Amino acid sequence: MPKNFWHTIKIPIIGLAPMDGITDPACRALVDEIGHPSILYSEFVSAEGLCRNTKRLLRTFLTHQTKTPFIGQLFGADPIAMQEASAILLEQTSVSGIDINMGCPNRHVARKGGGAALIKTPTLAQSLISSVQQIVSKQKRPIGVSVKTRIGVDSIVTSSWIPALLETHLDAIALHGRTLKQLYTGNADWIEIHKAAKLASDTTTLLLGNGDLQSLQDAQHHIKMHTPDGVLIGRATLGNPWVFVDTKPSIKERVAAAIRHCELFVALTPNANPLSLRKHLARYIKGFPQAALVREHIMKIETVKETLDFLSVLSYSE
Asked: Residues 40, 71: contact at Cβ < 8 Å?
């Protein structure tokens, strides 16, 4: 069987990080069109939920036509459900890889043993990985298996946690430089990410860093200093798909991107709740003249048509 994309992709990787409520099909499509990241991740979906409500939750994994590797992310703590959900993705979507979320700090997810809580149960984490690898090994097309995680739960455990993951021969690990306890406060610890990259350097597993990257220069700096395999950019992409190409867009280009985002939302997920667009649109207009008034208006819009009508009459100039 041919090697999966993780073994053929150009290094260093600068990819779009998975973000719950953010990296939906329209977001991924627009970032891909404008920024051309190395890889794209979906939002995370419960493995058990996908098994129970396949038709409804599969829309998370709908994707535009692209040659960019697209990774579907699942979370959970049941190896059987994880394997069944992976089989659904492999049979009914065009994902290039499956990522197991072992980094989500959401308390609801952690209470059930999933997300970052798996850092405290490395044997279970390894079982989840094995369950996905087993189903992937039976496929006719090459599929990557990866994990996105954190450096600890209550304290930093990089030195023991990363080796436990490396034992499973994953294709890639994406490491966010905070503990679960930190959530998104404080600063990402790139020294710990660097430590993890060193641990992975003698293996076939790629190690990608993640946390606090605000620009392409930030990404390139940390690749040079800490993670030569690459990085993932997350929150800085909100309203700024240009972050991957180091371009400062004009106001007209930002309005055009917001309009395109809405068009992609309708084309890819016509039945989704349009209110989810608000957080994206609010970022596109950040820094506009009278941005507060524009944002206030956007937050009251309830349909995509209303949004497009409003955006089409914005006539700001530099």
From this structure: yes
